[in-house]
Amino acid sequence: MLETKAQRQSDRRAEILDAAERCFARAGFHRASMQDICGEAAMSPGNLYRYFPSKEALIAGICERNRAEAVASFAMVDAAPEFFEGLAGLARHHLVDRSRDEVALCAEIMAESRRHPEIAKLYQDIEKDIRDRIAGILKQAASRDEIRRDVDLDAAASVLMLLGDGMSWRRSVDPGFDAEKVLPLILAMVRGLLAKPDDDAPARGENA
Amino acid sequence: MLETKAQRQSDRRAEILDAAERCFARAGFHRASMQDICGEAAMSPGNLYRYFPSKEALIAGICERNRAEAVASFAMVDAAPEFFEGLAGLARHHLVDRSRDEVALCAEIMAESRRHPEIAKLYQDIEKDIRDRIAGILKQAASRDEIRRDVDLDAAASVLMLLGDGMSWRRSVDPGFDAEKVLPLILAMVRGLLAKPDDDAPARGENA
DNA sequence: AAAATGAGAATGAACGTTCACTCCAATAAT
DNA sequence: ATTATTGGAGTGAACGTTCATTCTCATTTT
Asked: Cα A199 from chain centroid?
């Protein structure tokens, strides 16, 4: 009984966040009105405000909800038998499988985080978390002798994130962009940067 | 006399666009009010509206103004003695020299272009222009035997744009991001992708 | 005098948020 | 067994504010 009550409230919050995600992805943060979100969530404004104290809190909620998912997806790399294979899987998951709306929503949140200090902090925490995790994966791979050691791995982590951002951005902004087409080139490039000189050659013949 | 009149009007428009750029970079498109822009331009709303018919037209104006500059910057690559040198110069110009505000403004425009169809069209025209120019440069370099020929050069152009977007994005969103630090890695990566196998080795020792 | 340039108050719509209220299920009192 | 009481869930009209845009009128230029 006690649990079901908390559960119901949590479910309601999730429903609201779903509705807000749809609205924000469709119209952007500022053009999506609370009335729109209320309509999408089939709920009156007054009631919605019992669950979230402000519009800003909706973004924060979406952020936090996505955080777990994003971070969890790194388990994939750990699980993969070999580093580059895991990286490819991660890239595919993040950059090809995700819908255009998801990506657009992400861009929306990132843009908004430049302004609301509270969201900026939350967002940067998440970024830091992800960066650390990537750096950790790189260091682990280095210690397993799967990648070169004479590369600045922190800088390399930045490069990987940058590649992810670039692909996300291009996908959301350029309708003609074909993620499937460039992904092999990207992976070859990363391999060229990180692979040990011995393992470098085999990757080359593939991208003609 | 006739020219000075047109000149004065053009100057006024430029001043307004400068003011709008500052406001948009600071507060974003939706949170920068026309009153703010009027204040920044030291001009009354009524007068400003004689120069630009709407807020949206301000973004369009900024877009068009930046277009010439962006496209012109590609002359640098043509002027460089060697392909990768020109590319490095271009990257530095676009990604390190530009102020954070400029980059943020660019992100702002890109985000907004997802919604206003008119701006979207304008923006995508510019993107196409840039992509074609990059592809042209790549093809020229290939014909000069400066880069590999067995790479999909159109896809490579996408990759280069994606790298630019990624760096811009990261710069505007991540205060700790050090463009200077990652740029060598990026260039090494691109070299690894495009350089002819013979010329590949010399680039390697540099990025320890 | 006519036209262009400018100012700034006015307008009306849209927005985020609040508030007074209803509804309903569950418990407590009779 | 019936009747109060409670309190969380939900409503939707209303509020104050903000904003893009327009209107009216003054000043300067030609």
From this structure: 30
